[in-house]
Every structure is written in structure tokens, then in C-alpha cells.
Amino acid sequence: MAIMPTQLRELASSLSQLTQSLLELQQLIDDPATDPELRSLAAEEVRTTTESLPLISSQLHSSLIPEHPFASLPCLVELRPGAGGSEAALFAGDLLRMYQGLCKRQALRCSLIKLDDNASSTAGSANEVQEAVLEIDHPRAYDLLRCEAGVHRVQRVPATESKGRTHTSAVSVLVLPSFPEAGNEEIGTADFDDPGSDYYVNPQDVRTDVMRARGAGGQHVNTTDSAVRLTHTPSNTVVAVQDERSQHKNRQKAWRILRSRLAQAKREAREEEKAQLRVSVVGIAKMGRGDKIRTYNWSQQRVTDHRSGITLHQLDNVLEGGPGLDQVMDSVKSWLRERDLEALIADEEAAARNS
Fold first, then answer.
1. Residue (of 260, 115, 266) closest to 180 by Cα position
2. Phi and psi angles of residue 300, each rounded to the nearest 5 degrees, phi first
3. Which one, of 172, 123, 139, 167, lies nearest residue 70 by Cα?
4. Which residues neighbour 232 within 8 Å (Cβ) at sequence distance 6 or greater?
5. Are 286 and 150 in contact (CB under 8 A)?
6. Where would a tag sit more exposed on the chain, N or C end, judged by fewer CB atoms within 10 A?
7. What whole-number distance in Å separates Cα of residue 15 and Cα of residue 26?
8. How would you write 188-254 as a 3-class SS string?
9. When comparing pLDDT for 38 and 316, which is higher?
10. What is the four-CA torsion angle of 148, 150, 151, 153, rounded to 10 degrees?
């Protein structure tokens, strides 16, 4: 969360006072004329003061980093299996339940707005998830979960593997901002109508197709034109939704997903442009959503995040959305803050050279 200028000044003042206090205490300790008891008290005060410095320093660093423009919004979490066939689809279901468990534990309202699964999966009772979109309808959900975007890799023996060999599969996780159907206090209605806004989508660029719903039964399946497919022609982005019996509700869901994908794509394009400039100037690289970010190893009960470097042997706890997942996410957020601070410094240095 962004810190106000008055808080920033208070943090800077506290850090300055602590630093000055440490210098004075160290001088007292180094002075041969200091009473032994006073020297002992000074040494204890140095230890206490030193322990508080990292926290204030971290808060100060965080306050320097501009808040992400989508940070205050709810979010959509998209899961799509990648390499690994049916095993990847099963792991997508595991990750979906992990995020649902996290939301339940933290009392975050969530709902599935799209789920394409194979209910006839033979590998145990779990279904193969071909695509899922989970909406976390809670303020700042995007800021909480944006660290989860990327490729999640699983290493385990599939239920269908007869020779006990470990397979590697992957699932792509996208974290998108979730927008209301019209503007709210944070996203004005004008932003939806402004072609220069991230939230604007020109209706003339979107082709709408309606069709019969397909799936594993239900009275509306193959009987009514309730399924909706939107195609954004300039970017060739396609969203298809058939979860609801009502064509109108499916159209609303499809538009929300489309608007979120396009807004995220616009933001990422700008960030990628800046990242390429930083690489060419000072060599600071950025991990994109196509990078492998985390590995879940069943045989070792291990979860390793490849950005922060954290490793936990608490696989079950993490996959339940428990405190272990919080620990992993917190470590990644610290890593992201460090990268953001490096990028901020690089931008300032580049601007100074060009002025």
C-alpha cells in the first residue's frame, strides 16, 4: 500500500534519528572513560536499535515505489494447463483448489466465473481442468495475488503411470484486474469511454458469436443458443463462456474477462517496453508471465519459488492454501519490491544521463 508524504517524512526522520542514536551509543561504548555499567546498557540499546533498523528501512524502500495502478482492484485468476497433457489438467485443478482454500482461510469472497473441465476423468476423483477463471471479489485482491502470475511446474508420478516414473507438467497462471461493468469510485465511468484508458474497449473491434452450449448434460446444453464467444479482432483475443443458462449472463461474464485481459495486456506491453530499455541501459531484467516461477515436487514434498529462492517442505500445506502459501507469497513480494526499487533507480539514472 502506498505511504502518504507525511508518513514518508516520519519514516525518514525515524531512520535518521536511529542512525544518529547508534553513532552516539557506539562512541559511548568506545570511550575508555565510560562506566562499565553504562557501557553494558549502551551495548544493549545498540542491539535493540539495530533490530528495528531493517523494518524501518524496508518500509522506507516500499514507500518510494509507486503503487501498481491495478493494486486496489479485485482480480481474476486464470488457470490453463500447458505441457503435460492430462496430468497438467489435473494439476490445474490442484492449483484452483489451492487458491480457493486461500480465499476461504482469509475470508475473501471468490466465485468461479468459468470452468471447462473433463468430468469423465479416470485418474481418481479429480477432474481435468482445461481452463478456469476464479474471481476474487475483494479490494486489493490483485495486489495480493499478482505475484502468482507465471508458469507453475509440477513434478510427480501420475495416477495413470504404471512404471512409477516422475513426470513434469506445467500450468500457466494469469492474474488479471477485475473491473465492474461500469465505473466505480476508483475507475471512473469516463475511463471506460476514453480510448486512451487501459479500461477502454472499442465495441466495433469485438465480434460476438452465439452458439449452442456444449458439455456433460443439463437441459440447456445443445438446446439453446446460450454460449457466447467474443473475439477482439485487433489482438485476436478470444473469450468463450457457456457456464450460465442465460445468454445475457454469459455475455456479461465474457465482456468482463475480455476487458480484464486487454487492460492487463496494455499494462504489460508498457512494462515490457520499460524493461527492455533497462536491460539495454543497466542490465536489469524482468521475469514475464511466460517464465517458470515455481516448482511443486511431490516426492520431496517440496515447493520452490525460483524468483525469491524460498524452499518449503510443506507441499500439502501450500496446496491447501495454508500459511505455507502465505510464506511463499510474502517472500516473492519482497523480491518484487527489490526489483521495483532497482528499476526505479535505473529510471532515475537514465533520466539524469539524458538531462
1. 260
2. -100, 0
3. 139
4. 201, 205, 206, 238, 258, 262
5. no
6. C
7. 17
8. CHHHHHCCCCCCCCCHHHEEEEEECCCCCCCCCCCCCCCEEEEEECCCCEEEEECCCCCHHHHHHHH
9. 316
10. -30
Query: Are the CB atoms for 80 and 86 separated by under 8 Å?
Result: no
How far is Cα 49 from Cα 19, in angstroms, rounded to an integer?
9
Please state the three-class secondary structure of 70-105 as a single string: CCCCCEEEEEEECCCHHHHHHHHHHHHHHHHHHHHH
What are the beta bridge partners of residue 169?
154
Instruction: Measure the CA–CA gap between 308 and 287, rounded to whole angstroms.
Output: 12
Which of 116, 134, 126, 113 minimizes the C-alpha distance to 154? 126
Would you say 230 and 254 are in contact if contact means Cβ atoms under 8 Å apart?
yes
What cell does 146 get? 499478482
pLDDT tens digits, one per residue of 214-247: 665 444 455 677 889 999 999 999 999 888 888 8
Residues in Cβ contact with 241 at an 8 Å cutoff, skipping those fewer than 6 apart? 113, 114, 227, 228, 229, 250, 251, 253, 254, 257
Pairwise pLDDT comparison (115 vs 19), residue with the higher score: 115
The order of strands in the sheet holding 110-118 is 110-118, 128-136, 75-81, 167-177, 150-156, 292-297, 302-305, 311-312
Distance CA 352, CA 347 (A): 9
> At which residue does the C-alpha cell 485482491 appear?
141
Residue 66 has pLDDT above 80, yes or no: no
Which residues touch 284 (CB under 8 Å, ≥6 apart)? Answer: 275, 278, 339, 342, 343, 346
Each residue's pLDDT tens digit, 137-190: 999 999 999 999 999 999 998 877 777 788 899 999 999 988 765 544 444 444
Measuring CA to CA, which residue among 149, 180, 182, 9 is closest to residue 68? 149
Q: Which three cell numbers stand for residue 173?
A: 497462471
Q: In the structure grid, which three cell numbers stand for residue 88, read together?
A: 497438467
Residue 300: per-residue pLDDT: 95
